Structures are given as C-alpha cells and as structure tokens.
# Entry
Amino acid sequence: MPLWKVYHPVGAFTAEDKKALAKRVTEVYAQVPIPKFYVVFIYEEIPKGSCFVGGEPNDKFIRFRIDQIARTLPGQVLREWWIRTLDQVIAPYVKDKGYDWEISVDETPVDLWSLQGELAPPFESVAEKRWVKENKASSYTQAEKLPVNLVFAPGIADRS
# Structure
C-alpha cells in the first residue's frame, strides 16, 4: 500500500483538489499495476504559524510523506525516476500554485502488512490479479500465490 500523508496549510486544497490529486496518484500506481484500493490518502491541515522550515515560519509549505509497502524500488535509477514522476504528478497542485514542497518515501516490508486480515498476495500472482480486478482484498488459496505467467523450465514440467 502506498499511504500518502499530506501535511498542508489550511485552505491549500479544495475538496475537489484533494479528490483529483488522490485519483491522479492512484492512476499512476494502477499502471504498476497494483490494486487501486492499496492507495490511501490522508490530508492533514497545518494551522498558520505551525510550520517552520530552516527555523523560519513557512505557511506555503506542503509535505508529502509516503509509506510504500506493496512494492519497493530497486536501484538508484528507478528511485530517481519514481520521485521525478511523483513531482510531475503533484505539480499542478503545489508547484503551479506557488507552494514549496517536499516528498519522502519510506519502504516497509510487505510481509508486515495485512488488509482486512489478509496478507497481500505476491506480485504478479493469480490472487493479486484478482485483487486488481475486484478492487478489494479477499482470501486466496496457496495455488493463487503462483505467478500468472508461470513457466516451467524443460525437465520440470514433464516429470514422469
């Protein structure tokens, strides 16, 4: 799950902005693909005079704190690409409105996470593909943990 906590000045986002930003970010994650219901947004308003950057008040600062659990980003090149992609996605809501902003991503092990009492199925598994399609968590069998495109090497599939 990516959990987005957005700390922002009071009035920085309208209700429509909040919905549109959450939807736009969700679509980016859906391209991975991961189930859309994995993406959670929490907006937290920061009262005027309650944000300081470098020891100075800054009432035009927005902080995006993202906990990613469903996927991790292997390697520097993909990590840089991901942060730049997120910067582009949020730009109309922050940069284009004159706000300063910061993004950070924390990655948590997927095996320390559950949804409605179910552990997340493996990446590209039959169960995960079903979760994407149904857009909800549900129980799954051991067989559904296998990859959708499971290919056996020669000599393994034809054991007699």
Summary: The CA atoms of residues 4 and 66 lie 5 Å apart.
